[in-house]
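Fold sample X.
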Amino acid sequence: PTSPEARATSSRAMASAVGAFASAAHQCAIRPRSSAKAFCSVVKLGTFCRTVVWPCLPPLLMYQYIRGVDEDKYTTELLYYKSKSKDVKAFHDSSRIGASGHWRGPQGLETIRS
């Protein structure tokens, strides 16, 4: 059990620390605008990001998504092959919409229902 004065002092210390952190973060954001050269470098960095980095992101993200889907499909095919089963629809039912055709989807739904 701490006294109300101790809690108030602790709260003030916490507020002071948060204020100091916010002030430091604000200074880091404002510092590049302090001179014309620094402002110019910020503009150059923004232009570089807009013309080089940003256009590269969508294809890179799409590539990663395709790799993930391909790996998942390969794993399903490998599982089907190793099981020596003749029932393809037990592993991936293409007549079902979206991920519900995947062999784990219906199993997970049955687990949730029971």
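Fold sample Y, listed below.
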Amino acid sequence: SSHIDILSLLEVKTEFRLLNYPGSLIGRQHFTIASDESSVEGKDVVIAKNILNRIIPDGTTPLNAHLTKIHEDIFRISPKLLEERQVVSICIATDGLPTDETGYTNERTCEKFVNTLKLF
């Protein structure tokens, strides 16, 4: 949670994308800090900390699908990023190896993960 405080203090827009839906009692799967007026009031920081403090890693680890989507999103906005001389930082925190669509880890899934990382 100290990372959230620092990013918010520096007004660094940060998107969090959880690999698995944490459940309606915990919060959203995707959330952002330092992106709009709720950032000024600190609501986004409270929400982010609440979600991250309550989630319990569980389920599959669909890293390849999520990283592919992130790559597509960054590629879509890359002209604007280049024009405004902005950079993107991606931090991956996981409790497991990447899994395939059926929830299994194998050599092919790990190789695909490495190849997906090379896209960046």
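Sample Y note: The chain has a mean pLDDT of 90.
Also: The two ends are 26 Å apart (CA to CA).
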